[in-house]
Write a structure and sequence with these properties.
With 330 residues, this protein is α+β, with helices and mostly antiparallel strands. The protein has helices at residues 46-58, 69-79, 83-89, 94-101, 153-165, 253-267, 305-315; strands at residues 4-8, 13-18, 21-27, 110-114, 129-133, 142-145, 184-187, 192-203, 206-214, 223-227, 237-238, 244-245, 272-280, 285-291, 301-302. The protein has a six-stranded mixed sheet with strand order 12-10-9-8-13-14. A four-stranded antiparallel sheet has the order 4-7-5-6. A hairpin with a 4-residue loop joins strand 1 and strand 2 (13-18). The chain is globular. The chain starts with a strand and ends in a 15-residue tail after the last helix.
Length: 330
């Protein structure tokens, strides 16, 4: 038996034994390289930083030939954040664009805008409403209030403070979020059908497919039915945690015709955008949001993911790029 020996564990723990008796235990510090966050990157350093992050996600440089829908959506989120995209990503600023393009009737009512938590005043709000971050990218930045008499106001103010501190461009370098002036809005709580939310995937101003989402099993279990703009079932769906193919559904022809018409008007300036709508219980079509990087570009479809990625990747016509991979717009 060795007089002294060491035992190493995968979690970094080290043990020292003398004549087989453990006399010391410690954990070795594991040094990892410092990776700066996007919010700390100066503008002049962005090209190199974004190129590195893009390569880590796709295995390609932003100047190389891109083929799949996923590659192109990730590229656009990092290298093609135009002023109009930034405006239309902002849930407050997009209202002006929607009003001008398809009319105010498609918008939920706006009740209040808060730039800090102290501005929140429950007395001026209706009995039910929705609180949402104006750059909120998911359900974590949306709170449905069904009865304002039951809410905890200090808790709501804490939520607003947390939302105001969050930078939505940070996790995946979605640059359309980087330049949005942060606020929280209170808007109308729509009486929507839980089995119908429409997401129109538009390429070059045309609706190419429509995902009809069902949340009857809850928001952690999304049922997808996918249609062409003419209502033909396309027999595929986007893979998300808990998602499933919702067979046997149909799409309301009146809603379909109206939705395609207004979606293509909203999508007209963009090479790619997803236009989201709600259907209310009384049959009205209401605008949800414009999404330029669905699922932050982490796209997977079933069945035949490769075929779908290539098919719709071909439809995504990219603009010219400069030496750093950024889009060139005249």
């Amino acid at each position: 038996m060795k007089f002294i020996h060491k035992k190493r564990h995968k979690n970094g723990t080290r043990e020292i034994f003398v004549l087989g008796i453990k006399v010391f235990k410690y954990k070795k510090k594991i040094y990892r390289p410092y990776i700066p966050s996007l919010s700390h990157i100066a503008e002049e350093c962005l090209p190199a930083y974004l190129a590195k992050r893009f390569y880590e996600r796709t295995g390609k440089l932003p100047t190389e030939k891109l083929v799949t829908l996923q590659e192109k959506v990730i590229w656009a989120s990092m290298f093609d954040a135009t002023p109009l995209k930034i405006q239309c990503t902002d849930k407050l600023a997009v209202r002006e664009y929607v009003t001008k393009t398809i009319g105010e009737k498609y918008l939920p009512k706006l009740y209040a805008v808060y730039k800090n938590s102290d501005e929140f005043d429950i007395d001026v709000l209706p009995q039910s409403f929705v609180l949402t971050h104006n750059a909120g990218a998911n359900a974590d930045f949306k709170k449905l209030i069904f009865n304002k008499n039951e809410i905890n106001i200090p808790e709501i103010k804490t939520i607003i403070r947390k939302w105001m501190l969050y930078n939505h461009s940070e996790p995946m370098c979605e640059m359309q979020y980087r330049y949005i002036p942060t606020c929280v809005i209170a808007r109308e709580l729509l009486d929507i059908r839980p089995d119908v939310e429409y997401k129109c995937w538009c390429f070059n101003g045309r609706v190419e497919f429509i995902a009809q989402n069902s949340y009857v099993k809850g928001h952690n279990s999304v049922g997808f039915s996918v249609y062409s703009k003419t209502g033909k079932n396309l027999n595929f769906y986007q893979v998300l945690p808990g998602s499933y193919y919702n067979r046997g559904t149909t799409i309301n022809q009146k809603i379909l015709d109206e939705m395609v018409s207004v979606a293509e008007k909203l999508a007209a300036p963009f090479n790619f955008v997803r236009v989201d709508f709600y259907e209310t219980r009384d049959g009205k079509l209401m605008f949800g949001e414009l999404t330029f990087s669905p699922s932050a570009g982490n796209l997977e479809f079933e069945p035949n993911n490769d075929e779908i990625q290539t098919k719709y990747g071909d439809m995504f016509i990219m603009p010219p790029r400069d030496k750093n991979g950024f889009a060139i717009h005249e």
